[in-house]
Design a protein that fits this description.
disordered N terminus, alpha+beta, single chain, 293 residues
Length: 293
């Protein structure tokens, strides 16, 4: 059977209508230099692929209705344990103006660079706004789960966002809220959090794009971004980097230096080891810092 054009209204297995225009979304992402999102309705555990997302999927099954949706009175975020840190809850804004975050897990905030609680899907870059509003609206209308995979904007230090979205149904049968498990794939960041030394991921313009837990605690009071500040503005370091990240990567030789650190009008020193690593087609500096006593 031939599928209808992407911009036509089609019926879901539950009989609901939707008009998610995959062509429009693909064009919006293409204009932003990103590949089109992948969207899978009513995914089963075998195709969720990511272990953490599969765990959430199966946990939802334990409290779900037959359609896979969850009754709002049955939802307690504490039920999901540590997965709560990767959960977002959204509610529709009146007059069809997007969706507002009523909960934004701290691990999502750490990856994204800011807490979006109280903010809306309209606060994202245009192609992400268009995608979120369309997919969340369709979830509300269809009352079905959906798995989406998409590449975030460049300032977000993740390769892709893998998102499993579940409608929350009120007593009247309406999808009054959306529950979304957001999990990033990022091979470069994988082991940085457990390192005891501060590590900064820095781009060629010397902008800090990510900092591990130790660096956040030492330089930014444990905050998560925004990832738009220079090395000096973020960490108070007068770090001198002599080579391009591409040259460091190609040569396979790390650069070492002593840099001064200004904090609360006191000057200290760090021994900086600068290497490089590729990520999403771009090479970044990886700066490991050890205090000089």
């Amino acid at each position: 059977m031939k599928a209808p054009p992407a911009n036509q209204t089609r019926a879901s297995p539950t009989g609901a209508q939707h008009c998610y225009d995959s062509n429009d979304i693909a064009e919006a992402f293409a204009r932003a230099g990103a590949p089109a999102p992948h969207v899978i309705w009513q995914p089963h555990a075998g195709i969720v692929l990511c272990r953490s997302t599969t765990t959430f999927h199966l946990a939802c099954d334990q409290i779900a209705q037959n359609s896979g949706s969850i009754a709002m009175e049955d939802l307690d975020l504490a039920y999901f344990g540590s997965m709560k840190d990767w959960l977002a809850v959204l509610e529709p804004i009146a007059d069809d103006r997007g969706f507002r975050y009523t909960h934004f897990g701290r691990e999502i905030a750490r990856t994204y660079g800011q807490d979006m609680t109280g903010k809306t899907t309209n606060d994202f870059p245009d192609h992400i706004r268009q995608f979120y509003n369309a997919i969340f609206k369709d979830v509300s209308e269809r009352k079905e789960r959906v798995l989406t995979v998409h590449q975030p904007p460049d300032q977000v230090f993740a390769t892709v966002w893998r998102r499993l979205i579940v409608p929350l149904i009120d007593r009247s049968g309406k999808a009054a809220q959306i529950l979304a498990f957001n999990y990033p794939d990022n091979e470069l960041r994988a082991g940085l959090e457990i390192l005891p030394a501060p590590v900064l991921i820095v781009d060629a313009q010397h902008i800090v794009r990510h900092a591990n837990k130790s660096a956040r605690q030492n330089f930014d009071a444990g905050h998560y971004g925004p990832w738009t500040r220079s090395v000096f503005d973020y960490a108070g370091l007068d770090l001198e980097i002599r080579e391009r990240p591409e040259d460091i990567l190609a040569g396979g030789i790390t650069q070492t230096s002593i840099c001064r650190h200004l904090r609360h009008l006191r000057i200290g020193q760090y021994h900086a080891t600068i290497s490089a690593a590729p990520y999403k087609g771009t090479v970044f500096y990886v700066v490991l810092l050890q205090p000089v006593h």
